[in-house]
Amino acid sequence: MMCTMKKDYYEVLGVTKTSTPDEIKKAYRKMAKMYHPDVNKAADAEAKFKEVNEAYENLSDPDKKAAYDRYGHNAGQYQQQQQAYQQYYGRTNQSAQYTDINDFFEQIFRAQAQQQQQQRNYSGQQQYYYQRNTRPRQSGFARIFAFIMQIFFYLMIIRFFFGWMFI
What interhelical angle do 21-35 and 45-60 show, nearest 10? Predict the structure, then answer.
């Protein structure tokens, strides 16, 4: 059983990480011409040609190149995880990059509006619960008695604190 390790894309094209897009394109054309199956009849020419195409495909696109520089050959898996995260949670990373101040405020106010909507939905549920489970109102006598007791309590407090003034 043969274990195949992917070669570094920069090594495949014979360029460095600091190469410009024009240098990468020039190296790709040179390698593609060298390993093209119609020109090169070697047994592994087709495999090398596919390897060169894959390397150029990843290094010619600035986003893919940045992901490859950061994560290596696992960049595709990382991008798939990011897409799954965005689909599941419906948002991108919390460390969002804003192009201008309007994007910043738009995101803040959108989040605030969503929070308020959620609170309205929740408080509506609470209000319905409390309306259905309220205790019955007190009778007239009980309300009058409670009012008299409150007045008596307040008078006792006033007499306690200010009673020395009336001696």
Answer: 170
- Report how far residue 61's alpha carbon sits from residue 67's, in angstroms, rounded to the nearest whole number: 10
Report if residue 29 sits inside a domain. Answer: yes
End-to-end, the C-alpha distance of the chain in Å comes to 108
- Does residue 52 lie within any of the structural domains? yes
Per-residue DSSP letters for 101-134?
A: HHHHHHHHHHHHHHHHHHHHHHHHHHHHHHHHTP
Instruction: Specify the length of the chain in residues.
Output: 167
pTM for this entry: 0.46
Q: Would residue 116 count as lying in a domain?
A: no
Convert the pLDDT of each residue in 87-137 to its tens digit. Answer: 766 655 555 555 667 776 677 777 777 777 766 665 555 555 555 555 556
Distance CA 30, CA 13 (A): 9
The tokens of 144 are what?
């009058």
Half-sphere exposure in the Cβ direction for 69 (13 Å, CA): 12
